[in-house]
């Protein structure tokens, strides 16, 4: 910062102005990261397939440009030249440099996306609840006590994480979106489902919505007829990407008033804050936002996936959890990167993920140990890797379900053969049993017409759990 900036403070009303950067700013930003022409073209090619968006705060206050392109916050939001398979990047780069027409670029990008498992864990089909015979778009009811709600206006974010598992919602693919603006439908559904104690409003980022729109969604949930609701959660990365949302934005105060009303109505408002790296807690605006939210009576719980090259060191997680507890937040989940989009690029093997978790966990106080993980949000539920053990001479992963479609399975340990390369539940094979607890008791016999038996795959074990197999269900 120069002397003049210290003497003349930036006026409040321009200091906090949100400015988004998208694909058309990539050339300019790549120059700032000192990328060469080939890498710049490659990241532009990746950005035709995967979403890219960042903003003035991330660019000016979070990224350490001297360390770019290796800087973890730079890597958090910017596409990388090798994030997609080489031939896909080359194809898109070729189309860009020959100035191919937009429809051709779009068609090629679409074709690549369809190979990236856009809706992992059978999100669309398996979890959409039914009311009066019709399937409710924009709701997910996977675990008895929690309903996920995707408000239509909340399906974007202040910036996009390069590793986002909801990436399919941000690209120009209408069929991949799931969202609703029918709060009445949610209320009607909740009236009939007294087992639901928690509504999780998610996105995208619901905090992209104005206070007025947010109020239209939250106020009806406070109705006394829904007294079985104990908590309303908001999943958000705004505390990391745009803390001004709670400090200097024109509707910051209205937003906090709304949070306070939830507390007054006898419910907990839980802000489920996604922090990928401790640096996101450093700027003064970030600290102000946390303090102001806590002043409303809301609780902030924190979560993030473990991502190769961004936060794959125990020291990073130790620092993250400690700064969070210092600021009065509650560490909640460390996730394993999901099996979608550029997973190959960002995934950390489960064995290494557990080591990172354990080494970090061992070095923090009990207040930080409210965190659980590494956890995979997979089709049958959330599976936590509790450790690696040698049992009767066999090396195994010790696993446990933190959440399950079938509540009877929650909290029961089970085992998988140790595999140093396994990155996801579907890479694992049961140990001491012929199936995992969530697999059907009798393997379903796949229905294959006699004529096609010869061409059927010889290993049918994967078909025991059809939900996991369907790539874009
Ligand atoms: C994680 C998750 C929830 C919330 O689970 P909690 O254990 O209550 O935090 C709800 N629905 C889905 C689909 C989830 O992945
Ligand atoms: S903030 Fe969440 S939804 Fe938005 S891009 Fe990041 S991971 Fe995806």
Question: How does this model look, in words?
Answer:
- The protein is α/β, with parallel strands linked by helices and 473 residues long.
- The chain has a domain at 4-113.
- Helix content is 32%, strand content 18%.
- It has 18 helices and 15 strands.
- The strands form three sheets. It has an eleven-stranded mixed beta sheet.
- It starts with a helix and ends with a helix.
- Residues 1-14 and 449-473 have low confidence and may be disordered.
Number of helical regions: 18
Structural class call reads alpha/beta
User: What average pLDDT do the residues reach?
Assistant: 87
- Counted beta strands: 15
As a percent range, the share of helical residues equals: 25-40%
Percent strand = 15-25%
| Oligomeric state of the chains present here | single chain
User: Main β-sheet: number of strands, strand sense, barrel status?
Assistant: 11 strands, mixed
Please state how the strands of the largest beta sheet are arranged side by side: 5-6-7-8-9-10-11-12-13-14-15
What spatial form do the alpha-carbon principal axes imply?
Answer: globular
